[in-house]
Amino acid sequence: MSPKRLSICVYCGSRPGADSAYMAAARDLGAAIGAQGWRLVYGAGDIGIMGEVARSAQSAGAETLGVIPEHLFAREVASQSLTSLIVTETMHERKKVMYMNSDAIAVLPGGAGTLDEFFEVLTWAQLRLHKKPILILNVSGYWSPLVDLIGHAVSQGFADASLLNHFTVVNSVAELVAAAAAVGDIR
Prior knowledge:
With about 190 residues, the protein is of the alpha/beta class.
């Protein structure tokens, strides 16, 4: 019996960001997902980092599952070329469907929506509701202030030190791929 294909959920921005390294990392991650034979699970948008990771994954032969709420269908320019597209009623339902269809989570640069997605799965991990790896791709140090903030919450007594064990910060796509590949068949 062969192992199941890894499904990796990518949380990221629907904008390209100010540093070209963000789009390059999205492009490289998408290509790596395809090269590994993995499936991309993401927010279904065809713009910004979100669109770049999906186009790159598709070009590399990856299956893609996009999940988007009705109210963002036009705003995030939902991709019509995905392997599968799920349209949800709410943002909460979107996050749940993305989470349920993934084995690992990768966090690329993004804004409030990306932070919301990250903190929800981090909180669930802290509450022992899941053990899926959460991998933060710290492109050009983008997430360093976030990691510092979480450390500050721990040092000030608002979170247990174990919170820091529920995510892994990586500095390259190669490190992210290696960490995700170590997941194995966890479904």
